[in-house]
# Entry
Amino acid sequence: MPNRPFWPKFAGLLAVALLCAAGAPAQDKPLAVPNAPDITADRMEGPDAKGWYHLNGNVYLRYADHDLHADTVDVNKQSGDVRARGHIDLFRKDQGHWSGDELNYNYITKEGLTSASEVQTGHFTLLADETRRDTNGMIHLRQAQVTTCTNAPGHWHYWLTGDRIDFRPEERLTIHNATAYFMGVPVFYAPYATRDLDHPFGPRIVPGYGSGWGAYVLSTYTYPIYTPPGSDELIGNVLLDYRTSRGLAYGHELDWSQELLGSGHFGFYLIHDAKPNSMLSDTTNHLDGSRYRLYFEHEANPTPNDQVLLHADYLSDEMVTHDFFRSVYRDESQPDNFAAYTHRGINYAIGGEVSGPVNSFYDGVGHLPEGFLTVMPQELFADSGLYYESDTRVGFLAQQWGANDTGTNNFFEPDTARAYTYQKLTYPLHFWDNIVSVVPRAAYRYTFYQRLADGRTNETRSALEFGTEASFKASGDYGDYRHIVEPYLDYCFIPALSNVKANQSYFFDSVDGPRDWSDLFGINGLYAPRAWNGVRPGVRNDVQVREADGTRRTVFDWDMFMAYRFGTGNGDSTNGLRMVGWDATFRPYKNVTIQTTGLFDPKEHRMDIADTSMTLGNPKHDAVTFDWYHSDPTDPSSLHQPADPRLVGIYGYTNLPSITLASISVTHRFNDLWAANGFVRYDVTTRDLQEIGGYLEYDLDCISFRLDAGFIPPITRTDGTRRPVDYRFALFMAIRALQADNIQKMQGW
# Structure
């Protein structure tokens, strides 16, 4: 309700259903009559012989779903007619705001006819010479204008005019003989134009230029297929793109959302590529010009405890996302295809998945299918203090080597049925008011293989695990700061595996062995199935500060740890201090975050991985983001006997080079109109510039303009050939109230 002056000493309350006799003298006291609008005014007269009440000065009328403010109002108790004049503001629940100088309507039937008026509904402002409302809620405006600009009329940056505009608030707007104006210049005409007011329907066009594409226009037209009241919807997107150097491309997408069945996305994109091999190495299999991408994604939660996830990408070749869906390629250079179902109980989870590569040119492991049952930690017997947890998986696994793979593993593609279970018992002990905790554990790991790497069938592997984790926690306050420290020590003993040895089974995933060097040390709470006898000491620190509102904010969170393997007395070089690691987050201020994680191998003087990022400010306004990533991977079997090089997953470690990457992004908003961003990605190892780019943005009250630019320099590939330079420019223009969040749906980069 608007905040208007209210003068109680003059106010009167009128209800039109029960009124005084006709011809009553003028009154300056409140009138209260039930079953009619609530009305206050500086002065009231009536009713007259025809049942009209006359109200003057700061009139406020409230009835059912609307509020009316005006200088003068006449109300008829018999018909429900209302005549309002002067500085009229009409607010209707869920239907927006109307203002004007004259308004005639019926508060019972909701039908009315007005003179020149202004209507505001949602993001839209409409001006009209004449406005009429039907009893069904449809509003008709003649000689009307519509915009989302917030400036006063006469200072709009864009608008559309029409001989007639029909709209139902919060639903749909239709313009007859529509002309679009931009900065006062007519730029478009259509005899009929319509738009859904509750969805981002309509066209989106992005022009640009790229070295690999030439001049291009990317376009998407979004339209409703099924949009009933509520959250259910089915929406279509027509894709039509043209690149002068590559040719025509087109496709279609479906987006759906249903309360019970879930939400998802399906699309296809076809490219008639005139230069399909322009970015490829000369030694790569050359591609056909008919290229495509089919993609599907769905998520459903039919009950609070059940979830279904589906994700699939089927491609014409391994470079199609690199060439035409750059943002997709950055997230997933190889698609992750899966269909998974999970049911979560109070203390367990059960489900299954089918996953793996669907295109023959990709490497990967297929789970065809695999089911699982996970039991969360729970007390085994009442008041026993003994806790049980487990993880069990059963499925059929198959390794696929890509059709273009030239590695030594290319000559065989193993597959086998596999059953795996991990059973664990713990007995938590707490001392001195839970300051000290000691948790002994015993675990058993069992794996069944239908087939082994050496040709044997129906073999099993077993591993026992014994260990204890001890910790104590202390805290102290220093003014507004609180420091919590928790030293801990984890001891683990895993004897040599029985039956199937580490170098006899296939290597599909972490069930069979360590995928990363860090898996050997149980950092995530689960040690790899390899012989181990050692400790992992560490200390956690948490520093908090008291805010002005009394809440506490974490300023510094740091976990420092290491791993030490006990020696055998035989000069084994794999013993001693094997790993030093850390995981820290520092937030000295709300808009400053520094995060760093790392693992160091003191035996080989090798930094296995180091990942550091820093963000200063708000990324949407003024911000600086810096990232530093280093990886020097090694064969995780380095603590044990070398594995058979034919085994899946092992050979690749000898081909992973050390890499160090750095990137920085700076965003600055100069004022309400201008903003800019620049970023650089740099390969520190090879001293090569990977990419440089950014954008310049100009924001009006209702329209945003953005010029994006990117440059990728030429590089020399591992086979000695040169990849040409790649640069692009793109111009985005969006109506801020309607399309700013939907530009990302455009194809490209």
